[in-house]
Records
---
Amino acid sequence: MPELPEVETTLRGIEPYLRNAIITNIEVRNPNLRWPVPTKKLAGLIGHEVSGTERRAKYILVHTLQGTILLHLGMSGSLSVLDKNHSVAKHDHIDIEVNASKIIRLNDPRRFGCCLLVKPPVFSHKLLANLGPEPLGADFDGDYLFQQSRSRAVCLKTFIMDGKVVVGVGNIYASEALYRAGLRPTSIAKRVSRVKYRNLAVAIKDILKGAIRAGGTTLNDFTQADGKPGYFKQELQVYGRSGEVCHGCDSIIKSKIIGQRNTFYCPSCQKG
DNA sequence: AGAGGTACCTGGCAGC
DNA sequence: TGCTGCCAGGTACCTC
């Protein structure tokens, strides 16, 4: 479900409720996420104030002076803001209650997400230490991609989905960015030119910004923190469209498994 | 070092 | 209606 735009959309939805809020309770109904949820350690945050929130890659960080809650939504997770005492549904694993009035609720059917407590220095944590640059940051551009790719014999799509290269480009937006840049997902990363990487970097930024503006992509079950769907699905050019006509020419969109993930492209528009 | 495969888990859907 | 098999937005970790 969530790629970078969905995580960013989620953070924007919950941030107003967390800003300077006092954590008044943390309820863990099911600690069996990707890694065991440290219920007791999290309880140590009760009574303390949220000092800030941020996103790094697809992680949401909720800072307090006692430690940082590190949240990941995995494939199927979502966070929503609800009134305290809102009824509990299936897969509602964790509630973070703030100001004794609202709860930030994690629902994650597949339980690939995580909720950990990290002590400073937060960015030295194993999960954060080796991440590549943010795609929307100034240090991510075509020259960087070109330089990183010189020793890489993997498919271009696998390369841009590698979190050590750049974070936040998941399966949907990888296909979309490659389409926008006119590049074949199966091209070998180290054989792609600097000029093409410049186009690709711009395409990645544009796609992600557009998706954030639309509130993310809702395929089956993604909703923003207020329960509304994202509207980027209408703007998808290739993802999920195999067998349909390309919006840019008369060709039929194809799909191919690359790195165990379904990949969509136009054989005519993407020759690079 | 880099490439490729496996594992974690539930739910929805197509096909029988 | 119910069963089976397949697919799904992520990514750490293992082996080669």
Note: The mean pLDDT of chain A is 96.
---
Amino acid sequence: MSRDQRADDPAALQEALGSFVRAFGLHQPETTPCGRPISVSEAHALSELEQEGELRQVELTRRLRLQKSTVSRLVGQLSSRGWVERAPAPDDGRGVVLRLTPAGQRAARNLAEARRERFSRLLGSIPAHERAGVLHALDVMVEALDE
Amino acid sequence: MSRDQRADDPAALQEALGSFVRAFGLHQPETTPCGRPISVSEAHALSELEQEGELRQVELTRRLRLQKSTVSRLVGQLSSRGWVERAPAPDDGRGVVLRLTPAGQRAARNLAEARRERFSRLLGSIPAHERAGVLHALDVMVEALDE
DNA sequence: ACCTTCTGGTTGTACGGTCGAACCATGTCC
DNA sequence: GGACATGGTTCGACCGTACAACCAGAAGGT
């Protein structure tokens, strides 16, 4: 099948993506694909917080694309694990600022390490000269999905 | 961070993939990304059955990467919607052979159509000069996963 | 033949992530 | 200052999934 024909057959893309999602275990969101006893959403939250240092809860909601109620509970779980601190936002009396505790930073690093191993294997299966293109393509798709 | 550094960092891949999964709404498995009142797993099951015509239940379990109990219930739901028929396997007294009913075939076609539209819109949001690259990147990833 | 083990399916139970709605407090705008 | 919008929390419900127990049929060895 030629390249142009494939571009006109979006179902093939869905097929491939569906297989990918299942192969990665993403259909079971309560365990991370890396085998850690932590949910996918929690892992993403940890990752965002580690990267940003501080994050407004509403911003986390936006990035995770969840309802605010869900994020509230999610943060509550992370907090009761001792991984996240909530502080009142200095510039907005309604807001909450989230930050990782030292224990949370350790957890995030451990998680990142497990993730790194898992994805190293996947990345290793991608020819080196294709890697940048794959990453760029995923960025492009996310951007497209936001419109 | 330069492009090459990023390309060799598995965390970047995870980042990109995580964003994509969330942007696509896959973190909410009880509604299909196409906005249909049908779960992602049901959609996949329908798709597999449409493609294969007939499928042993155990084979569906394998393809969907679910537990057999989950698939049993899943099939029960599709059956009570009148979309799937169960018949005893001719060569194995334990087995169950699944097949789409006419209504199920219609549902599968409708679903495929909705999916097509969704992906067409997605493709439409991707700058034309990026499309070939994105399609190619997806191919590469699927290939990498099959190893 | 018989016993054991494996395999495909079903049912019961529990868990957990997500949403929507109701509600409160605070910010914003006319 | 009143109306509306925004950030968070809590409550209730839904649903997909796993695990375990169980049953029935197949497979293989003695």
Note: The domain at 27-145 of chain B is CATH 1.10.10.10 (Arc Repressor Mutant, subunit A).
